[in-house]
Amino acid sequence: MTSLSYISGQQAEVIAQRYLLSKGLKNIAKNYRCRRGEIDLIMADGETIVFIEVRMRRSNRFGSAAESIDRRKQQKIIVTALHFLQSRRLDYSPTRFDVLTLSGNENNEQLNWIQNAFST
After folding, report:
1. Mean pLDDT of all residues in the chain?
2. Could you report how far apart the first and last alpha carbons of the chain are, in Å?
3. DSSP class of residue 6?
4. How many Cβ atoms are within 10 Å of 66's Cβ, its own excluded?
5. Strand partners, 100
6. Cα(63)–Cα(111) distance, integer angstroms
7. What is the CA radius of gyration of the chain?
8. pTM, whole model, 2 decimals?
9. What proportions of the chain, in percent to the nearest 5, are helix, strand and coil?
10. 13, 27, 40, 100: least surrounded by Cβ within 10 Å?
11. 3-state class of 77 per DSSP?
C-alpha cells in the first residue's frame, strides 16, 4: 500500500475499491451524488447492494476514521442511498451500509472493512 501521508481521498477510494473487488464485490457506482449527499462506493455483494463510506486517517489523534462517521453523516448516507435506490427502481433490493477505513502512517498502515457498520 502507498504511504497514507502521500495519498489523497480519491486515491484512498481507489485502494478501497480494489480491495473490495478482490473480496468478490462488483462495481455499481462511484462517488454517487444527489442534493442530499454523496456515497463513495456502491457495490454488489451477491444480491445485496452495498453502500460504502471510505475514510482515511493518518493518525488517531482526533479519533479513528470509523469514529468520524457520526450519526449525522450516517443519516446523509442513508438518505442518499434511498435516492439512489428509488432513482433506479431498486427500492426492494437488500442493502447494507459498510465502512472501509485506511489508517496509520508509513510504519503502520491498516485497512479495515466494517460490514453492516450502521443501519436505517
Report:
1. 85
2. 33
3. G
4. 16
5. 54, 113
6. 16
7. 14
8. 0.86
9. 30, 40, 30
10. 27
11. helix
CB 15, CB 1: distance < 8 Å: yes
CA distance 39 to 59: 23
pLDDT digits (tens, 9 = 90+) for 45-98: 999 999 999 988 765 555 455 566 889 999 999 999 999 999 999 888 899 999
User: How many angstroms separate the CA atoms of 17 and 3, rounded?
Assistant: 17
| Cα gap 36→59, rounded to integer Å | 29
- Measured CA to CA, the distance from residue 65 to residue 101 in angstroms comes to 6
What count of Cα atoms within 13 Å lies in the side-chain half-sphere of residue 1? 22
Structural domains of the chain, with CATH = 4-118 (3.40.1350.10)
Tell me whether residue 58 is exposed, middle or buried, using C-beta atoms within 10 angstroms of its C-beta: 0 to 12, 13 to 18, 19 or more: middle
